[in-house]
Amino acid sequence: MHTLGDDTYRKITALMYDTVGLSFNDSKKALVSSRLAMRLQRLGMDGFEDYFDLIAGDHDEGEFQMAVDLLTTNETYFFREPRHFEVLEEEIVRTRRQSLSVWSAASSFGDEAYSTAMLLGDMQLQGRIGGEWSILGTDISDRVLRSASEAVYPIERLRHVTPERLKRYCLRGEGEAEGFVQMSERITQHVRFGQLNLCCPIEDIGPFDVVFLRNVLIYFDNETKREVVDRVLTQLRVGGLFFIGTAEGRVPCEAPLQSLAPGAFRKLADGGR
Ligand SMILES: C[S@@+](CC[C@H](N)C(=O)[O-])C[C@H]1O[C@@H](n2cnc3c(N)ncnc32)[C@H](O)[C@@H]1O
Description:
Layout: H1 6-20, H2 29-43, H3 48-56, H4 61-71, H5 82-95, E1 100-104, H6 111-125, E2 133-139, H7 142-150, E3 152-154, H8 163-169, E4 170-172, E5 180-183, H9 185-188, E6 191-195, E7 208-213, H10 222-233, E8 236-244, E9 257-261, E10 264-267
Parallel strand pairs: 1-2, 1-7, 2-6, 7-8
Antiparallel strand pairs: 3-5, 4-5, 8-10, 9-10
Helix pairs in contact: 1-3
The structure holds S-adenosylmethionine (SAM).
């Protein structure tokens, strides 16, 4: 069993902080050690110092990604925090929006993006919005993004999806694919995914009418949280909706926000920067 020394721990956590904003204090050493130890074993490496050299070097971007995956959790499921989807529906009706562009800014496997697609698909069928709506999902991890683009999910993750929506938007797997569902083209045609690090400057990818930034701020320290929120909000239209995880509290930011529900806000004006 390898031991993670204090110096190497600091080097690994500094690398994660500088590159992707992940913040680990000393109390997280056992967690970091146990998550990476399995990987060292699998790679047959001699110790954490060698592993640090591997992920810090330029030659193995794949292993760096692997370390990020091991140190973050990608947990997500369809219609997580359902009140947010109700707020979204109410606001679209209230503002009588016909077209809509949405950003799922830490999309993980895409559950949030496709949940939104099901809601917007229904609204389109009911004639409450037009057909011009699109959803962009982004994440730091290319492993989750590859899976999101395939749009195949274990049925368990769709436990909060109504039977009508399951029928309308999902194709059930058979044989070897039993227990999995594939999102239908009806919604996949509106959804695309790409890699984006929230801790780096963002080129103009918006403006969006709706931004989800849910359950990712928990990884960042206060300063990084603020920077990320300010950066993300530059891509949101004035009047647009902004969602963060309900457990993430209110994050200070430059743009004035009106609170609509826990974790749900309307952007009232641009920030000062
Ligand atoms: C717990 S998941 C949240 C998924 C979804 N938003 C939800 O609420 O169900 C957090 C995601 O944030 C991503 N993440 C962590 N740091 C990131 C960064 N610096 N830039 C972009 N994504 C990041 C992780 O890869 C992970 O997929």
